[in-house]
Amino acid sequence: MFTGIDEVDWASLHHAYGSAEDVPGWLRALASADAAERQTGLDGMYGTVHHQGNVYDSTLACVPFLYSLAAREAVPDRGCIVELLVSIGAESGDAHAREAVRAGSEVFVPLLGDPDPGVRRAAAGAVVRFLDGPERVLDLLRQRIPVERDGRVLLALTEALGLFVRRHPAHSTTAVDLLATQSAPPYEPGLRLAALGQLALGAPELLPADLVPTAVELLRDRSTRRARVPEPSGNDTLVGRIRRLRPSDEEGAQLLRTLHTALGDRTADRIALLTGQLTSPDPMDRCNAVCMSAALFRGWRADCAGPVALIGAQLDTEQDRLRDAAVSVLVELYGLAAPAADDLYALVAARPDLWTHRWERGSPALGGPLKALARTGDPRAVPVLAQVLAGPVVPGGLGHEIAHLGPAAALLAPALRHHLARVPLESPAADTLAAPLLAAIRAVGDRHAVPEVLRLLSGASDGLGARERLVGPAIETLDALGAAAQAAPVLRGLLHTRHAAAAAGALWSAGDPDSAVLPVLLRELTQGEPGSRRLAARQLARLGPAARAALPELRRTARSGQVWQRTAAACALWHIGRDPEPVLPVFRAAWSQNPYTRGPIAQCLAAMGPAAAPLRDLVTAELTGPRRHTAGEGGYGSQDIAKDEALLRTCGEVLAGL
Asked: What secondary structure letter does DSSP report for 314?
């Protein structure tokens, strides 16, 4: 198995953490009779040699030895070794790695009939990915399916057929016929679900008209049978612990995830499928549904009120895993979680222990149920938040969550001021403590907090980085409260710092007659850092026609520079000059170039009224598009849902203004 391993100069090769001299030990451990040693070897391979899917020179050097291990029937757990080879050759996307694995792919052929079902399961996809000759590959799969008796291996063979259809469409007729046969009785429910998912990916025209009801019925039938099968135990190693952390029905999750992926923009069907999953009698089916709902909500615009209400219903459960999964999804939805607000409030009222969560190290954070309730804007969160604020320590980021309640949280203003006054200005973490509180004060419009804000602006030590990070939020808060005039001396002192644009804008909004404001903004527009240039453009937009002297420079900025600077400059051009001609082409280009600019652009279009008519097509397409504007495959973070919903509301205002 290891012939020649000592002849490799491993010390000259590298993995994720440096020299690869420890790799031979991990390779030998994979052949150990001791399960813990084998898991340790696998940990080393995935954790360093193939770290996060990357390929190094030591990874390529391992491939021949991994093949030798996979071919030796006496080696236990060879299915894991085949999975590792597949990951190196296919999932890494590295061309050299793919060729290295292809070079030894004949080893996979006899493994399709190996006595170990784990090996057969891993080999099914490997022959499709790496073996040459589509006809031969299909023949191997076709011969194996009738004689296979292990249910999990049959699922892998079905997935391999689907992969074959997508990789070799010119040779797919027989494979598609096999999938169609497996999708109907008398095959067992899980296999039928798998076949339907693969047909949906590769031959959707063959799907039954009643796909969703059929899939839901198969899921429930499968769950009834699965309930009789005990869960396997795992080893107490890193890989073993990770496997136990997965959903206990990962197989079922994968079956439905494949179907959701294949349905893509058929959101009505996906909502119906999700509804069927969420109403299953089996809590594991419901837990899987909750987890995969996140990708649908993040990535697609759909009427999700029904599924959200059903996710809320999962909060009334004794099963921590299901409840926590539901909370984690609802936290991401902000206002879209409103159909679950009653369930969230019931959980918050019944479980004060969930109001906050303290990590093993660090300060407490706001608990998920209360955070989700506050993000819906539900005023029932206010009395509970008042109790949390009455404690000696404010959970990190609490103010940002209070801000979602707006004026409804005015009751919390005294407590917010109290905690803001206690922020230690000498602390390097002063900005981390103060910024969320300032966001909440802006949201509730508490003018009584001006003294506390002025303390932050003028009292922090100049030598602290926190002082620099505090200035911007403090100026923004004074400006929002209409109290910048009270800070005019301090603001004037900032006109020659990196906060000059923010200070100048606040002075202008306060009615300060200081003639230095416009020159400062012009200076920042031409000489500042990129962030300062954008802010200067936004502040000039606030000045309106009074900033006509900035028009030549704004036109230059709108024609060149980074997309965000062009967008901000074009918006300022409209507010100052009211001429759409130099503005609309910039907006059209930026809208396509960087989807993240669409929110600010739409806000400016709403202000333009009928002058925005030439961009009606962009706004209409956005409102009718099924995909969230910043969503990639699988979606992004939670804030993107809120921003996308805000964009849709603004686009509606644009059309109303036309």
From this structure: T
